Amino acid sequence: MADYKYLIVGGGLSGDGACRGIREHDPDGSIGLFAEEQHEPYARPPLTKSLWKGKDENTIWKETTKLGVDLRTGTKIASLDLDAHTATDDTGETHSYEQVLLATGGTPRRLPSAPDDVIYYRTVDHYHRLRAHVRDGARVTVIGGGFIGSEIAAALAMNDCTVTIVFPGAGIGAKLFPSHLSSFVNEYYRDKGVNVLPGEEVAEIGRAGDAGFRVVTAGGRSIDADAVVAGLGIEPRTELAEAAGLSVDDGVVVDEYGHVDGRDDVFAAGDVARFPAALLGGTRRVEHVNHATTHGRYVGANMAGADTPYDYFPYFYSDLFDLGYEAIGDVDSRLQTVEEWAEPNRKGVVCYVEDGKPRGFLLWDVWDKVDAARNLIGAGEPITSETIRGLME
Ligand SMILES: Cc1cc2nc3c(=O)[nH]c(=O)nc-3n(C[C@H](O)[C@H](O)[C@H](O)COP(=O)(O)OP(=O)(O)OC[C@H]3O[C@@H](n4cnc5c(N)ncnc54)[C@H](O)[C@@H]3O)c2cc1C
Fold it and tell me: In this predicted model, what pLDDT tens digit does every residue of 91-108 receive, in sequence order?
């Protein structure tokens, strides 16, 4: 039985961030990092971006073991005994800890009764599987018009695949972008050769030919493909927490320090954690890289005694061909917007408002303004066009 001061469940970016936070305050305490994947922690954003633009795969690894961490790859923690302070892995081995962190992230939503070789894109292994299909003219159908679907469709089109993207909404990114912008992105993708099929539910995925697929939509379209990739969002991996009787509400519920249920020996961080969002009020669960790394780091530091509340609100970003943005706050197309464009649909700022006050900002081809936007949300003053234009200067 291994004996750790800190036991971290999950070898993603929040697990890596936690190791860094711990080491800032405790250079020697033993850390056991359990990763179900066969790999050390790595950055996920390159899997839909830079790796498709020729960047070397060696750049994604976080090199967490350099922090003096006992990394157990390919090892899933199957259960926790909170009273005994032990975690049992899927080989039956039991490990003791003083403090445990749940950094278990999320698992991609799946389509019911689809073939097993549909790629629910999230990991470096999925990247390798998809890469194996990529050759000139390879037909790939992407299901989902959100972050993963839109990014991977662009990446594949840039690698000379014949890409179809299918989604039920009106446009790519429609949950975030105002409708005119989402329509513009649809057309932008079409200009790049992508077959964009909005307003279409997938009814069935069957076989066509030896290893091919036939995707049939509820609207009666039939699309043959060599590979099918789905980006349907994730479900937080709360099963360990639930089985241990911890508070779960679409995520493991934590306080501003990352404690679960007020316990000083159980923490959660990253995509799996529902945390109090001081900036916006209420609680949030955020599935973005800036949150995973920063929250992981704060919570890891708190495990090692830092006692620092997570009063930061994270931003997020995405690249769609050569379009790109950073965003912060409640970026939700159901909210009212006030927009200022230096060039329509190319460079501008969308402010999402409630009662005239800013709740979120979409900084479209506007860079390094996240802190200013966060301050405007925090100030809670009614927003003016002049203030929004100021973010483009
Ligand atoms: C392809 C891709 C591209 C992205 N691009 C962007 C981007 O451009 N911008 C942005 O803001 N965000 C992006 N994100 C989101 C961002 O990468 C995630 O928010 C972040 O990686 C989440 O980190 P995490 O550690 O909380 O969770 P995860 O990454 O889900 O890691 C959790 C890990 O824990 C493991 N695990 C779960 N349960 C157990 C267990 N019981 N025992 C052991 N291990 C376990 C899982 O296997 C997993 O490896 C992207 C995500 C993906 C998938």
Answer: 999 999 999 999 999 999
Task: Detail the DSSP E strand segments found in 261-345.
Answer: 266-268, 273-276, 283-284, 315-320, 323-329, 336-343
CATH number at residue 191: 3.50.50.60
269 with 300: CB under 8 angstroms? yes
Residue 210 has pLDDT above 80, yes or no: no
Query: How would you class 167 by CB atoms within 10 Å of its CB: exposed for 0-12, middle for 13-18, buried for 19 or more?
Result: buried
User: What span, in angstroms and rounded, lies between the C-alpha atoms of 155 and 160?
Assistant: 9
Give first-to-last CA distance, the chain, whole Å.
59
| Cα 336 from chain centroid (whole Å) | 25
Q: Would the CB of 13 count as within 6 Å of ligand 1?
A: yes
Q: How many domains is the chain partitioned into structurally?
A: 3
Q: Is the CB–ligand 1 distance for residue 14 below 6 Å? A: yes
Q: Quick check: is 312 in a domain?
A: no
d(CA 129, CA 121): 10
- Ligand 1 centre and the CA of 260: distance in Å? 20
The answer as to whether 121 is a domain residue is yes
Q: Whole-prediction pTM value?
A: 0.97
164, burial (CB in 10 Å: exposed 0-12, middle 13-18, buried 19+): buried
